[in-house]
Write a structure and sequence with these properties.
With about 375 residues, the chain is of the alpha+beta class. About 35% of the residues lie in helices and about 30% in strands. The protein contains twelve helices and 14 strands.
């Protein structure tokens, strides 16, 4: 029997990582064989085969229907498994399996296939539910079908991670109808800090008869978000089911617009080399942390590390002019240097930033004069 060789190891170190683009969640599998061990291997093999195309559809920005991977390739891409609801008999195995894949290996695979893919995680949203019926509007109310649906979560393959607030007194004091209706949403910043996320998604559902008008808006506005507006007509008496349908459609509309945005940015993707002047390793560690936290940079790679300067290669999805402008706003004023490099004008002059006392001669010196 042909088996993937990874499973006996991964069963012992099942991964319970935060869901991300490279994870396929809760795939129900079952298998029967001569022994429970053989049935388990068959079921987990099947989980990986099901998970791989699901994951590709989440990650890819172009069609993956023609993409083929061998069983050996798929097994090599697996980073870990998380198993729930496991049941066994002497000859059967059943479980819900979450499969997490290795991002870099998958990206290398897609590069070889010529497939465009998402390079950064989509925004993580904190839900703010507003349900309006007649002259009554509620937010964190146990009687709100929208709030109840949010707390149950969105099932399916959405690329987003959504957080339903607790709806406790602290939340109710922060988010009020008066605040939302005023148009000044800055008080939401306290809620974002509390739930450790950068964005809130305000979802307002207005019920008029059997028509549900849906408006979704991101706060704060950003280049990767888009407002959503649609209406749903339903005569169903099961309002919670209608709310679930609305949330799925909202996530789907957000994802469609976000993917369109990412596809457009992919066409503008480029990279640049930046020379960063430093005063030792401790200063560099602080600078590196700051640069890697910049949301408009897709990748930051150290090409050479010297005693008084660092050569960085950054990858971005924007125009060069916009990136230079964004870097300046973030505190890194860039000046055009020699040989196509850019220099952080840390001291106000490119000469001071570009100077070197250790004989570093640019990118060709990546193996010489390294900081020890």
């Amino acid at each position: 029997m042909k088996k993937f060789l990874i499973f006996t190891v991964l069963m012992a170190m099942a991964v319970c990582a935060k869901a991300n683009l490279y994870t396929a969640d809760m795939i129900s599998v079952s298998a029967e064989a001569n022994t429970a061990v053989e049935a388990r291997d068959l079921a987990l093999n099947h989980a990986v085969r099901e998970a791989f195309p699901m994951m590709l559809r989440r990650v890819a920005l172009s069609d993956t229907a023609h993409v083929q991977a061998t069983p050996a390739e798929m097994s090599a891409f697996v980073q870990g498994l998380s198993i729930a609801n496991e049941k066994t008999t002497p000859t059967k195995y059943m479980a819900d399996v979450t499969v997490q894949f290795k991002p870099k290996d998958v990206q290398d695979f897609l590069n070889r296939q010529g497939i465009l893919y998402i390079t950064k995680e989509p925004p993580k949203y904190l839900f703010i539910p507003i349900f309006v019926e007649g002259d009554k509007a509620v937010i964190f109310d146990e009687q709100s079908p929208l709030y109840q649906a949010m707390k149950k979560g969105i099932t399916g393959t959405t690329i987003y991670e959504f957080i339903a607030p607790l709806g406790d007194e602290a939340d109710k004091k922060t988010v009020t109808l008066d605040m939302l209706n005023s148009g000044d949403l800055t008080d939401l910043n306290a809620l974002l800090i509390r739930y450790r996320t950068d964005y809130a998604l305000l979802v307002r559902v207005t019920k008029t008869g059997n028509i549900y008008k849906v408006q979704a808006k991101s706060y704060p506005q950003n280049t990767t978000s888009a407002d959503v507006l649609f209406a749903v007509s339903s005569n169903a008496a099961n309002i919670p089911a209608v709310m679930t349908q609305i949330l799925k459609k909202t996530a789907g509309e957000l994802e469609k617009k976000w993917r369109q945005n990412q596809t457009a940015l992919t066409d503008q993707r480029g990279d640049m080399t930046i020379v960063i002047p430093i005063n030792g390793l401790s200063e560099w560690m602080a600078i590196e942390k700051q640069i890697k936290s910049l949301p408009f940079l897709e990748k930051v790679q150290v090409q050479a590390l010297h005693k008084n300067q660092v050569f960085l290669k950054i990858t971005y999805a924007d125009t060069l002019d916009n990136i230079v402008r964004k870097m300046d706003k973030a505190g890194f004023s860039l000046k055009s240097g020699h040989d196509g490099t850019w220099v952080w004008d840390k001291l106000g002059t490119t000469d001071a930033a570009a100077g070197s006392s250790d004989g570093a001669m640019g990118l060709g010196a990546t193996q010489n004069g390294l900081l020890h």
